[in-house]
Write the structure tokens for this entry.
Amino acid sequence: MDDGKVNALSPEMIRSVAAGFDRAEDDGADAVILTGREGVFSAGFDLKTEGEGWPPMLVAGANLAARMLSFPRPVILACNGHAMAMGGFLLLSADYRIGVSGDLKIGLNEVAIGLTMPWFGIEIARHRLARPYFDRCAVTGVLLGPDEALDAGFLDEMVPAADLPGAAVEAAGQLAEVKHPAHAETKLRVREQVIAGINDGVKRIEGDGREW
């Protein structure tokens, strides 16, 4: 992802990423790597989106997260910088997450900028974050440095920034060796509750856009 700025997840950006996953599945890819521009993975939803466009954008973001959580091939996320809000939810939706060391922030800062965390986001955070961090990150909007993000459950591995591309390709090669049908079916079993929670959150948005 690279919009030349902070990779705001606008409706167009979300559609582009979702289309990439569709192409990967159609092409029979053995694994997928998702990354951002140097210094930033994503700062979250595009806050400049007009009010009426917010519910569809939230639904698209939730569906993208569910798509990643249920994707039939391994998904590696190479987090090369800041990851906040919806960017953090995508980070929590990949199978293996590699971050970089440095002066960067990762977290779910909705409440810090005056937004109530959407129900689907709560379910994603509950599924992946260590229990004390889930409560703290969701309720306070704290942003963590990479070392603490690793402890919290946002990341699985951390490398120097220069090593990130190679580490992501290496992880993709290793995970591509898993047996695909077993991987896909087990993923759906392990993540049944969080995917159901995301779908319920989508229904809340579609039923009443204020019920995020």
The chain has a mean pLDDT of 96. The radius of gyration is 16 Å. Residues 38 and 80 are 6 Å apart (CA to CA). The first strand starts at residue 32 and ends at 35.
